[in-house]
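Task: sequence design from structure.
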């Protein structure tokens, strides 16, 4: 079994078998990062470019650590000090860097479709680390890995995604991935933060948080993207918290063995209270740890090293 594509652009259209392959592969890498010596020679000789056109903390560091722990040569590209500031296009930037003989590109970009565009310009493997409001596949994969690690399955679980659905690439990747794996998915948020033709996602959607989370196994809380709220998409942060914030009181509506997740960065006191974020059922920090294992698995599977090992 191998991935059908040599790139990871999104989870839409990815099969249950492909997602399972990534999650299963991540299990062994999760064990590696718990060892005293966290480095293996798996990707020695592979050069990976981290091309981040948007700010990132968790994803960027997670990919860099994943690359280093696989013994790949890792290069991080800073747009603020590059020729991008002189007007160089994405195509020219990447083609010039590829001429230095890189093998893989991890890209985050504000424009939807930028990772796909790169696949038309270069021969390197391309991994989407977030493009516009489109997809963030490795975040959804690590979310699914975290859920499966706790429950031993994804099939049949009720997962609710709450928050700024309209602007969230994490929501979209989670929807496609969770549905493929047999989970029951619901989304919830203000009507002004729901995407156009939301019914096309094929999931339940709510504008009442109590109804949405009743009987849920997992609540994955999305960040309210404060930088976008100048458009007046809801009256005030206080009102959002009152209507949609996940508080200790609202946890009573969940199933007994519930799980609280958040991809970060968190706006404490707005979409999630501190006592919920730091509670016993929160796996927010475990998501960060698991992210390394999942990204190691993605890098390994796309590099072709798995096929070499099987020959």
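Answer:
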């Amino acid at each position: 079994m191998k991935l059908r594509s040599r790139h990871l652009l999104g989870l839409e259209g990815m099969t249950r078998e492909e997602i399972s392959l990534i999650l299963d592969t991540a299990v062994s890498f999760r064990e590696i990062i718990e060892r005293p010596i966290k480095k293996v020679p798996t990707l020695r000789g592979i050069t990976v470019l981290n091309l981040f056109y948007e700010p990132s903390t968790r994803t960027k560091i997670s990919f860099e650590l994943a690359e280093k722990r696989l013994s790949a040569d890792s290069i991080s590209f800073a747009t603020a000090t590059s020729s991008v500031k002189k007007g160089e296009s994405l195509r020219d930037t990447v083609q010039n860097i590829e001429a230095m003989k890189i093998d893989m590109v991890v890209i985050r970009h504000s424009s939807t479709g930028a990772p796909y565009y790169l696949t038309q310009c270069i021969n390197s493997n391309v991994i989407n680390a977030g493009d516009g409001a489109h997809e963030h596949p490795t975040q959804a994969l690590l979310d699914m890995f975290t859920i499966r690690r706790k429950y031993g399955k994804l099939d049949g679980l009720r997962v609710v995604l709450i928050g700024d659905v309209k602007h969230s690439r994490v929501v979209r990747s989670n929807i496609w991935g969770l549905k493929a794996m047999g989970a029951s998915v619901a989304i919830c948020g203000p009507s002004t933060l729901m995407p156009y033709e939301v019914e096309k996602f094929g999931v339940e959607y709510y504008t009442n948080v109590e109804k949405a989370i009743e009987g849920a196994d997992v609540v994955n809380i999305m960040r309210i993207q404060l930088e976008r709220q100048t458009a007046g998409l809801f009256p005030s942060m206080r009102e959002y918290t009152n209507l949609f914030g996940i508080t200790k009181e609202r946890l009573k509506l969940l199933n007994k063995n519930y799980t609280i997740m958040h991809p970060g960065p968190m706006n404490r006191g707005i979409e999630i209270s501190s006592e919920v974020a730091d509670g016993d059922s929160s796996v927010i920090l475990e998501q960060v740890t698991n992210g390394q294992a999942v990204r190691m698995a993605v890098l390994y599977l796309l590099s072709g090293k798995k096929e070499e090992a099987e020959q």
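The mean pLDDT is 93.
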